[in-house]
From TrEMBL:
Protein name listed in UniProt: Oligopeptide transporter
InterPro entries the UniProt entry points to: Oligpept_transpt, OPT
Keyword Transmembrane: yes
Residue ranges of the TM segments: 40-60
Membrane topology label: Multi-pass membrane protein
An annotated GO BP: protein transport
MF annotations from Gene Ontology: oligopeptide transmembrane transporter activity
Stretch forming the signal peptide: none
GO cellular component: membrane
Organism in which the protein naturally occurs: Lupinus luteus
Family, as annotated: Belongs to the oligopeptide OPT transporter (TC 2.A.67.1) family.
Compartment list: Membrane
Keywords: Membrane, Peptide transport, Protein transport, Transmembrane, Transmembrane helix, Transport
């Protein structure tokens, strides 16, 4: 929520007004456009967790007592994997043939945006086929 004085429309007037104290203390309401979101790490970890959770949940769905694994499991597992990938992948830029496009396997530290997108992709796989 943005509280603006009649005369001053400055970003300094923004306040964190989330009713949950833990969220208010840890999550900023401002977006950081410098954080990467759709990276190689996001696609690899997100698609892998989506496919794996879809397979495992469908496989265990045939049991007499079906067992389901939620996207929280993938969220917990992918954080250290993302940080490991950020530490080990090369930063060299890769050019896509016959286009002007290029991308880096490692654009910088593992970000909250990447982790949130991986969790969303994992949720798509865990919810059912």
């Amino acid at each position: 929520m943005k509280i603006v004085d009649g005369n001053d429309k400055d970003d300094n007037n923004e306040i964190d007004d989330n009713p949950i104290e833990q969220v208010r203390l840890t999550v900023s309401i401002k977006d950081d456009p410098t954080q990467p979101a759709l990276t190689f790490r996001t696609w690899v970890l997100g698609l892998a967790s989506c496919v794996l959770l879809a397979f495992v949940n469908h496989f265990f769905g045939y049991r007499t007592n079906p067992l389901g694994i939620s996207s929280v499991a993938a969220q917990i597992v992918t954080l250290p994997l993302g940080k490991l990938m950020a530490a080990t992948l090369p930063t060299k830029s890769i050019h896509v043939p016959l286009t002007k496009w290029s991308f880096s396997l490692n654009p910088g530290p593992f970000s909250m945006k990447e982790h949130a997108l991986i969790t969303i992709l994992a949720g798509c796989g865990s919810s059912g086929v």
